[in-house]
Model the fold of this input.
Amino acid sequence: MNCMKCGREIPLGQVFCKECLADMDTAPVAPGTPIHLPQRQDAPPPRRPVKKARKPEEVVELLKKMLLASLVMLLAVTLAFAITVRILVEKLEDASSSIPPGQNYSTSSSDETQG
Done:
C-alpha cells in the first residue's frame, strides 16, 4: 500500500507514512473541519457475494417446488385457453345459427331497395 499524502510504500492497514504523520502533527486540523481524502488507486475491486453451496437434498426439494409451480402454471394456461376457445366456438355457433345456410349475402343492390 502507498501513503495517501506522499505515495511512499507503507505497511498494509495504514493510511499515511510516519514522516507525513509527523508533518501533519505540526499543523493539526481543527475538529469538525471537512477534509477530502483521495481514493486509493490500488484498492481491490469490491467483492461479489458468494452464493452458499446447497446440499443435494436442498437442490432436489427446490427442483420439486419449481416443477410443481410449473405444472400449476401450465394447468392455468391450458384452462384459460380451453375457456377462451369454448367462448369463441359458442359465439361462432350463435352467429351462424341466425343466418340460414347459403343466405349470408344479399343479391339485391341498394338501388333496387330504395326505388
